Fold these 2 entries.
Entry 1:
Amino acid sequence: MKRHHILFLPHNKKITVEHGEKLIRAAMEAGVHINASCGGEGVCGKCRVIIEDGRVEGGVTEKLDSEDIEKGYRQACLSDVVGDLVVRIPIDSEVDAGLLNLQKTPRRTAHIWEMNLEELKDKGLFMPPVEKKYLELPEPTLQDNLSDVTRLISFLKAQYNEHRLVVQLPVIQKISDILRKDHFKVTATLARPVHSGRKTNIIHVQTGDTTDRNYAIAVDVGTTTIYGQLVDLITGDALAQFGDYNGQISYGEDVISRIIYAGKPGGLEKLHDVVIATINKLIKKMVKKARIDPDEISTITMAGNTTMTQLLLKVNPKYIRLSPYVPASTFYPPIKAVDLGLALGDHVTALVYPAISSYVGGDIVAGVMGSGMYRTEKLTLLMDIGTNAEIVIGNKDWLACASCSAGPAFEGGGVKFGMRAGKGAIEDFSMDPITFEPMNITIGNVRPKGICGSGLIIIAATMFEMGVIDNRGKFNRDLKTPRIREIDGVYEYVLAWKHETEIDKDIALTEPDLDNLIRAKGAIYSGSITLLEEVGLKMQDIDRIYLAGGFGSYVDLEKAMVIGLLPEIDPDRIRFIGNGSLMGAKMSCLTNRIRKDVVEVTRRMTNFELSETPSFMNNYVAALFLPHTDMDQFPKLKARLERRRALQRGLANPAF
C-alpha cells in the first residue's frame, strides 16, 4: 500500500499515512486538533484547513467560497490524501499553539499480535488432531476375503505405519458401500489421541482421494456475539470468518438474566436451541463463502464463558449465580457434534474449552492458550475487557486469574448516548483548549448517532487533561462555553448539536455517564492490582500486557492510562490479541499440543474470588478517581498536568 508524508503547521507534527486516508483522521492520528462536531460527514463546515503544498482529492463543498478555494482551503473530513502534503491549521494566536502543543500527543493503539503459523511449524507445534490418509486397497477375492474394516486397518498399518487403530460404529455402518463406489480407492480420516500410547480413531471414510480437503471449525460463543472461523487443516489458513449476534440476546442481554430464564419451564432447551441455531447459521455462511463440501469438515472446537458453555451443552447453569458459585463442571468430554444439534457430519467431534470457575471460563483459557503466555518466561498480564473483565497474570511457571464485574459502559451500556461500535458511533475525539469546541470522528465518517466504548475513553481522558472535568468526573462550571450546560439538575457537555446528528437531538456526555465509566475502569484496574498483590508483585513487575476483546484494537493506550484503565507503562509493551477466545479455538484445531497443554494449564491456574479478597474493596475505592487517588502510580500524567497548570497560571498573569 502506497504511503504519504504529511506535515501539519504550525505545530510541526509529521505523520505517514496510507494512500486515500481522510485528512481529518490523519490529523487526529498526529494529535492535531481541528474543530469538527459532525463526525466527519462535512455538514458543520468547521474543519477548514489550508493545503500549502501538495494536493488532496475532494474537500470542496458549498461551505467554502471561491476565494477560500483559491487560497487552498479544504474541508479536512472530506479530503483524501493522495500525495505528500504540507497542511496549515488556522490558529488565532501563538498562545493557542502553545496550549495545543502541550496537550496533543499522537494516537497510540496496541500493536496487533498475530499467530505465526510458520513459527508453529518450526517449533513442531503444527500437528492437526485430525489427518487424512489415502489408500488404494486390493479388492477382496475368495482367496482374500478379509472384512472391510480389517482390510482398511491392515493397509493403514502397512502403508503408513499406523497402529492401535479403532473404527467408530458410523464408519462400520457405511464402509462397505464407500469402498465399492470407486474400486476400493478411499480416504480415511484419523483422529489423533492427545496423549501418546492411546488409540487412534478412524472417524470417517470417503470415496477417492480427498487428502487435500480437510477442514475444521473454530467458534467463540460469546454472550453478545458469536464468531466462527473455517480453518484449512493443511495450510492453517482461515478460509472464512463470520460473526452474528447470539440468538439468546432476546432472552436477556447478560448471563444472569439468561441463567434466570433457563430456570423457567422449557427455558434451558430454548436457550440451547437458539445458540445452536446461531452457530449453524455461521457454519452455513462459512461453507458457502469458502465453497467447500461440509462433509470435508472433520472437527469443531468451541470456547465460551462458563454460563455460555453450560447453556450450549444444555447443562443447568442455576448454581453459577448462587453462593458459593459452583459450575456443574469445568471439564467436558468430546461430544458428537450432531448430538448437540450442529449441522455437521456424524463423524465430527465437538471439543469444548474447559473453564476455571463460574466467572473465569473457557474463553479466557482459550486466550491464554492462543496467546502463548503460558509458554514464555516473560511476566504477562492478559486483560479481556467487556461487561465482565477477566484478568490473568503469569508465565510458563505459574498462572493466576480473577474476574470482576465492570458493567456495560465499555460496550455502550449505562451511557445516555452510548452504543456498540457501529456506523455513526463517535470513536475519536479532540478538543480546542481555548474554545473547548470538539473534534468528533465517527465510524464510517457519518453524522453522530452515539458514543462507543473506545470513544468514551478518549473523550473522558481528553476532558480530564484539558481541565474540563475534575478527577471525580465533574464538569468545570466556570468554563466559558455553551457546550457545558445543566439539564434537570444534571451537568453535561454537548458533543454535537441537534442539527449535526443523525438522531435529531443533541448528543451529550453527562456526569452520570462519567460516573459509570469511572466505576467500570476502577473495577478493572483494582482487579489487576489486587491480583498482583495476592501473588506478591507490583504493576512495574509486568513485562507486557495482552489486551483481548472487541474494542482492544481501537483503544488509545495513552488515553486509557489517563483515566486509569491501564497502568502507565510503555505502550510498546502492550499487544492486542483480538478475539482471544476464537484464536484459542483455532489453535486447538491446528495442534494437538494445545489440546494436551490445556488440561495442565487449567489445573495449575489459581483462581482468586475478588469478592472474598479483603484488599479488593480498598483498591476499588482508591481507583474511583481519574486516574487514581495515588497519582504517583501515574508519574508521566502527573508531570503533564503540572506543566499544564503552570502554563495556565502563566497565561492568567498579564506579565506572562
Note: The longest strand covers residues 200-207.
Entry 2:
Amino acid sequence: GLDEQQRKNKSPISVPTKVVSRETEGESPEKIPEVTPTKPQPKKGLEALLEEKGLDASDLIGLIEALGSLKKRDQSKEKEEEKAEKKVYKDKEFVFNTNQDVFIYRRGETAGGNYYVRIYDSASQKIHRQSLKTSNNHHAHVLAREIYLEKKDKLKRGVKMNSLTTKELIEYYLERKEKVITDVPHRGITTNSFKVIKQQLTYWERFIISKGHENTKIEKIPPEVGGEFRYWMLNLPKEFYKDTARSNEVINQCITRIKNVYKEIAIKEKFISLDILPAFERLKKERDVKPKRDILEESEYLELTGWMNRSYAREKGITEREVIKRRVFALFFSLHYNLGCRNKEILGLKWKDIGINPMDTEEGKRKNRVFTIDAKNSKTGRGRNIVVADVVSKLDRIKSWYKKIGVVPAPDDFVFINLTETKAGKNIPYEQPAMAKRLKEVMEKSGLGAKLRETGRHINLYGARHFYATARLMRGVSMQDLAMNMGTSTAYIESTYSHLTTLMRSSEITKGQGYGR
C-alpha cells in the first residue's frame, strides 16, 4: 500500500542503507586499503627545457617562426646567388667528368669571350680563379688541366696561389725592413744597415736576370741555380777598390741575407714550400784571421799626414773653399787614426760628444779629451768613451777653418760637416763615400798609393781602425782595455791581432837566443 501511495505522489522514498559487517555474519574482518595521494610526475623533454630556460610554448613558436623566416631568406639569397653565378659563369663546362672541383667558363659581364678556370679545394676551402687568355674551347680545356695539376698541389700543401718574381720578393722584403728602421742599433735596423741589405739583394736580382729568370715566378726557378750564385759573385767585377778581390766572407754574408729573404717571406708567407728553396752554397771560410784591411805603417802614416799639411792644402789653382776642405780632411784623417772608431761613428760625432775627463791631470784637462760614442751612433748599440791625448789643438783648428766660411759650430752640430756651398752651415755630416773618394785622391796625389800597390796593399777608410788597434797593442795596451775602447769583444781582438803577440813579446821569446853553441 505504501509503494502504491508513493507512486501516486511521485516522490522518491529514502531507504536507509544498512551497512552489513562481515564480522557479524561470522566472517573475518577485511582491511580496507588506505588511499595515498598521487605525487606530481617530473616534467620531461622539451617541456622541462623550456621551463628551465624561463620560456613557454609561445616563446618556442616565436623562435620557430623566426628560424623559418631566416631559412626562407637564405633560400632566396641562394637563388639570387645562383642567378648571379649563372650570369658570371657563362658557358660553364667541367674539365673532368668525375671531378666538379674544376671548370672553365666565360665571364658573363665581359664581351671578350676568353675562358677562365675555377679550381676549388675542399680541404683548405680555397678557390683559385685565373684567366686562360684564350677563346678556343679545346685549348681552354688543355690549359685548365695543366693549371689544375699545378695549383691543386699548391692548395694541398697550403702554398699561396699567387706567386712573386724575384724582384717582387725583394721589394716585399725591403718594404717590411723599412718599417723597422731606427736610430738605435739592435732595436731594429739602422739606415746604413738598410742600405747594406738593399745592396746585397741587388746582387741576387742581377744574378737572376743574368740567368734569364727576370720574369720567372720564384717557384719556377730551378733550386740548383742557388748554388751557382757564389761563383757568379766571386767573378763579378767590383765597382770600387777594383784592385782587390771580393772576399769569401762578403759573399757568404750576402748569401745569408738572401736565404733570410726566402725564409722570412717566400716560405713563411707560403709563396713556396721548403723543398723548392734555392740550394744556396757558401764559399769556404778563410782560415787566416789577420786584419781584413791593409794598414799603413807608422812611418807611412806620418809621411802622408805631413804631405797633406805641406803640399795638399797648398796646391796652386784651388779655391779657398777647397783649401778649407783639404785642411779639414787632413784633421779628420789624423783624428780617425787616433780614435780607432768605426767610419760611421766618427762621422756621427757631435761637438757635445767631446768633453773633459774629470779624472785627468790639470795638464791633461788642457790637452786631452774624451769622445763619447752615443748608443745610437754605435754599431753594437752600446755607448762608450774613447780617451784621446793631445787633441785639443786639432779640434780648435777645425773650428777656425769653419769660421772662415761663416760657420760657428753649436753643441748639437756634427764635427765633420759637409762643406760644399749648398750644404755648408746646414749641419749636414759628410758621408762615407765622400770621405773615401777624398782619401783615394790623397793616396794617388801623394804617390803613396803607387808605392803600396807594389807591396800588394790597398788602404781604405776602415784601415784607420786597424792601424789604431795595432799601434796600441804594440805600445803595450792590454787587449781588454783596447776592446773596451774600440767597442768590440776581447775575443775579436785576440783572434784578429794575435799575430802581433810574437812581435810584442819578441824580447822574451828571443831571450838567450844566439848564444852558446
Note: The longest strand covers residues 99-107.
